[in-house]
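Forwarding the complex inputs:
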Amino acid sequence: MTETRALSRSGLDPDTAARFTHSAVTHQDLSGFREWWAERLATDHFAVDRIPFAELDKWHFDATTGNLEHETGKFFTVEGLRVSADGESSWTQPILHQPEIAILGLLAKEFDGVLHFLMQAKMEPGNCNIRQLSPTVQATPSNYNRVHNGGATRYLEYFKGADRGQVLVDVLQSEQGVWFLAKRNRNMVVRVTGDVPEHPDFRWVSLNQVRQLFREDNMVNMDARTVVSCMPLAAPRSDRPWSPFLDALLKSYEDDLALHSQDEVNSWFTESKAECEWFRRTIPLAEVSGWTRAADEIVDDLHEEFRIVGVNVEAGNREIAKWKQPLLMPCRERTAIMLVRPIAGVLHMLVQATPQAGLRDLVEVGPTVQLPESEHTEKRFADIAMTTDGSKVHFDTVLSEEGGRFYRAQTRYRVVEVGEEFPVEVPENYCWVTVRQLTDLVRHEHYVNIEARTLLGCVHSLW
Amino acid sequence: MTETRALSRSGLDPDTAARFTHSAVTHQDLSGFREWWAERLATDHFAVDRIPFAELDKWHFDATTGNLEHETGKFFTVEGLRVSADGESSWTQPILHQPEIAILGLLAKEFDGVLHFLMQAKMEPGNCNIRQLSPTVQATPSNYNRVHNGGATRYLEYFKGADRGQVLVDVLQSEQGVWFLAKRNRNMVVRVTGDVPEHPDFRWVSLNQVRQLFREDNMVNMDARTVVSCMPLAAPRSDRPWSPFLDALLKSYEDDLALHSQDEVNSWFTESKAECEWFRRTIPLAEVSGWTRAADEIVDDLHEEFRIVGVNVEAGNREIAKWKQPLLMPCRERTAIMLVRPIAGVLHMLVQATPQAGLRDLVEVGPTVQLPESEHTEKRFADIAMTTDGSKVHFDTVLSEEGGRFYRAQTRYRVVEVGEEFPVEVPENYCWVTVRQLTDLVRHEHYVNIEARTLLGCVHSLW
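Prediction (whole assembly, two chains):
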């Protein structure tokens, strides 16, 4: 770097947004991808079996706290959390504590002028379907520093160190605030221009193809979804037949058309955080009440929340072929819904300032409705959000949460349009925002929760 | 709000920046202010005396944890913290825990087209000089909900509730990360147009006057400084004689002249957070080692860090006339220095990604040098920063930290210019940023620590 170098603009780089957008709008079919995907599935050797905790040989319950820990102290622990909400209700629960920050990295490269991303057909023990489409790198320091004595993490060198490529996206983001304590990962997109060796489990996929794949059940994994949601897209054009909905959607990507200014949105969110009267404290797992630890599970006494279970994994293409670990297994499928509505011809999303006990700041911007746990949700919104009127349901797909920590955790993601009969005035914990505004918020940590980020990706798939 | 309302731009409101800038550049003398200030000092009745903990009648040490607490559980507690830094050093220390979010609010109104701010000559028990210039409202929920049965908080209604004015600034910001655990306050500027009753302790002050007052020892209090630092200023003009330094400084406010793009700055900061290997856990105060509790103080055995002491306060113009409370009393004056340097004709500030044990995310953007505690500081930078060459020292003033929690806590703030002999290439925990870029970061929580925010305000005072 020298002083004669041209000084660069300080705002969002328009070149970066243009590159992503070009990759998103350039139609590419999926036939080659399908062929590769089928080949990958054919090679699979993968078995996951539940086992009692006593057989999790490198994991143990601490004699004093009862916390479930790995012998190295790494990976994650299962601890207890005491939560007091609004001075009215309080509860205790187990929670996953993983202070390490993983890299979720997508390697990007242009082919024929179109940005492609090196994506992985990755096995995770919690996946309901063995493989899902994942980022190039998805690894904690415990993984890539080889605490488990496994193989090296492929392509890590493109994301760490001085010789990495051009960083297009680099932001910490939270993960599931109902299950993780203060968890966050580093979402990265790095662009390279040189040759990249291709491992058979990896394939270059354009953003247009990713958008198509978003609509398939349990295809694009959580880690890929959050990185995609962090990509800034400029106002796109679409080749699809024009409709009023599509017109309103595309306008939602423009930077000067919103019901509220970004300052107003930020002030709404600041107020939501300042007024939140939730408090939490970690406690020993042994002090969590209303939950019972048996030989092979820890579960709440109503069997409504989740189980902590142990699994034995045998895999053919991971860094290590056999391992045992705990996983969190939800008792129920969850649902996350974004209500959307054209306001003055511009599609707006109705987001909620959502408290979740594990979030670092307790509150982030979430979808309109998150079921079952969002007690602050307006019931009338939840009723509308579950409509079966197909003409209003623009997206309705079951997607998986992170298979490295969660066992068959599935969420139904829905984008549901409401019309002019739906009020523009909403309760104070809600706010209407455009795609562009939510995109501005995901440039920073602590704003948008993982469910809302996934739904932002779902909205990207609608044009 | 109706759908026919014009949709507003989503970026930084240029009108808001223009209003602040106009108030900053319009010269106004301080003679009227001086008269009012002298009158205020003449009315003072204020006595602060140190007392033993046993006489802090509404405060007690918890029998189990040893934590120092108020009988209501409100205000704040003194707890213990265990910190492990970079896997190398670890320590325990007392820390102030105050989960409540206070409002630091400046009421703004235009007089003759120039925005003025209603500021208060406010007594705080820890102030070395009794009164300092403070925001309109500076109050925690414990204060304004009258936990202490005191009087109502003046002007609070302009900051809370549906009838408040136009919100110009509204952002949560951290406070001293070496003394507070995860503390933050809500920094607000609210503009009104109607009549505002004036209490004699309050006076309308323009931003130009605030900038002049910044250069006086212990005049503008911490709470006012942080709110001022959150005000966006557009590229100002100055009536002062032209100099190369001034020219470079004013260019630093423009939005397209920076060594690094804002994306690069954000990526640098993300990496700093991701690589930070500090961990902390709250512990009972009784378990803090290396500190001794006597009848009238808790202090580290080397007498280098700080004391927790008790004081008896008698005041004539606060919500309540007499009270007793603990305060944190630093053993030493601290120093915070920003090195600045023109790069390609544009002034840049050399900021450091600074870990502090009490910060929510452990790392925020801090000054080049913070003494004594910043062990990550380059010694060569600290040596340069303490230069006595007057031609290079653009700002050198002793300012007080929050007098409601800290007893005579003073920090020497310095802005020191370095020349072309100082390298543009800096270690990876440092980054050169412009005024405009730091201003963009303070629009969000979790980025810029209180010392760097104060120094941003100091830089504002240089033209």
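The two ends of chain A are 41 Å apart (CA to CA).
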